[in-house]
Amino acid sequence: MTSSRASSGASSTATGTAAASGSAGSGSGLPGRRALGAGALAALGTVALSACGGGPDGRGPAPDRTGPAAAEPGGDRRMPDEAAPHELTYMSWPSRRVWKSYAHAVREDIARIARTIAEFEPVTLLADERDAKAARRACGSGVEILPVPVDDLWMRDTGPSFVLGPDGVAGVDLNFNGWGGKQEHARDSEVARRILSGLRVPRVRAPIVGEGGAIEVDGAGTLLATESSLVNDNRNPGKSRDDIERALKPLFGVTQVLWVDGVRGEDITDYHIDSLARFAEPGVVVMSTPAPTAPDDVWTKVYRQAREALSEAKDARGGSLDLVSLPEPTHIGRRGPDFLASYVNYYVANDAVIMPRFGDRKADSGAASIVRELYPGREVTQLPVNALGEGGGGIHCATQQLPKAP
Questions:
Q1: Where is the composition biased (Low complexity) (predicted)?
Q2: CA atoms of 162 and 252, how far apart (whole Å)
Q3: Which one of 184, 239, 280, 334 is least enclosed by Cβ atoms within 10 Å?
Q4: Which alpha helices (DSSP H) does 69-190 contain, by range?
Q5: pLDDT, mean of residues 182-207
């Protein structure tokens, strides 16, 4: 999960109307990241993982063989880049407990994303048992609905980050803790474990705390991250950047970690990387680029620092990076202070790229053209995701790929 220029620095401001910038606590139009009350969470029960979570006969729950000792970090595992072939995409259904009166609007966005991705690869969407019927009705028969206890829709952060190794697929559980304890997500903290138990694949319990949106890999040995999100006492108290880097390398099979500063405390994620900079391929980084008219605020400064750092960086192969600008939209109408207007928060599916459309016709068209050049041979589909954006997230935040084992 990522956030807006108000909350993670990667979206634009709206011109002529309300600016998409402001303090993280100012409150957007939609409550996508509102904290859940402890009492409400305590009153919620859990249900057994069904469908892929069943035993050999499909009736009983599979034994949990995915405890901390099931798989150790390291070995020959590596995280493939997002453009590598997928087995399927995981998503999650937003609950009314979190989104309240805005649940219908954001569910429309999630269903639209799920249906679109399902045209290119299978989609499995997790939903509370009480919400499963509504999710099936909205998503249609092309999307598998899996009754699993969930709090919210941010599968990129709550689900496992999958890696490949000599024995096939494993899943890294980054010990999701509500973005450094900013929100209480008792159910979402179990999502990675439940998915991996259902798949019956090893669970690699990370020795650090983080989220999938905090990392970006090129599949060839390089990982990109912000210091503000991972080197932070709200997730990894007492750990230095070197400590975090030593953990990241064996977890994801990388030899080079490229850090940008980010910014702490301005948004719930402490500045995730996946709405600022993405690897289109090894050696090519596409960056969400503020408009020339954007204010010289903390987010513009964060962008400039990141671009300067990456322009001087070397990847795992020893080569310099080709930085590609993906200009942010400017004419997006009246949006809340947490609205995420970053085109780089796209999702690369099999034979396709699913990316946002914000209503700035010139910017939308230009962004799609750039992405088509970056991903030749893939169909580029743009979707309106206004409710999701008001919650401070985007398409990439709501998805997590299961790579296909070679």
A1: 1-23, 59-71
A2: 9
A3: 334
A4: 96-99, 103-117, 132-139, 155-158, 178-181
A5: 95
Confidence of residue 142 (pLDDT cuts 50, 70, 90): very high
Nearest to 212 by CA among 202, 198, 225: 225
Distance, in Å, from the CA atom of 359 to the CA atom of 265, rounded to the nearest integer, reads: 30
For residue 21, the model assigns a pLDDT of 30
> In one letter, which amino acid is 254?
V
Number of residues written out for the chain? 406
Task: Pull the structure tokens for residue 71.
Answer: 């798989």
Amino acid at the residue 342 = S
Task: Return the closest-CA partner of residue 161 out of 231, 254, 241.
Answer: 254
Tokens representing 99 are 């989104």
How big is the chain by its Cα radius of gyration, in Å? Answer: 19
Torsion of the alpha carbons at 137, 85, 320 and 247, rounded to the nearest 10: 80
Tokens 């799609």 sit on residue: 368
Task: Please tell me the distance from the alpha carbon of residue 12 to that of residue 332, in angstroms, as a whole number.
Answer: 9
SS3 state at 28 = coil
Separation CA 8–CA 253 (nearest Å): 27
Q: What are phi and psi of 171, to 5 degrees?
A: -125, 130
In sequence order, what are the beta bridge partners of 348?
A: 353
Q: Which of 230, 260, 310, 397 is catalytic?
A: 397
Whether 397 sits among the annotated catalytic residues: the reply is: yes
Q: What are the structural domain ranges in the chain?
A: 76-403
Report the mean per-residue pLDDT for the chain: 85
In the sheet that holds 215-217, the strands lie side by side as: 215-217, 222-226, 256-260
What crossing angle do the helices spanning 103-117 and 132-139 adopt, rounded to 10°?
50
Q: How many other C-beta atoms are found inside a 10 Å radius of the C-beta of residue 307?
A: 18
Each residue's pLDDT tens digit, 72-112: 666 689 999 999 999 999 999 999 999 998 999 999 999 99
| SS3 (DSSP) at 247 | helix
Arch. (CATH architecture) of 76-403: 5-stranded Propeller (3.75)
CA proximity to 405, closest of 219, 204, 162, 223: 162
Whole-number Cα distances in Å, 221 to 166, 248, 277, 320, 324: 17, 11, 17, 14, 20
> What is the rounded (10 degree) CA torsion for 128, 133, 138, 141?
110
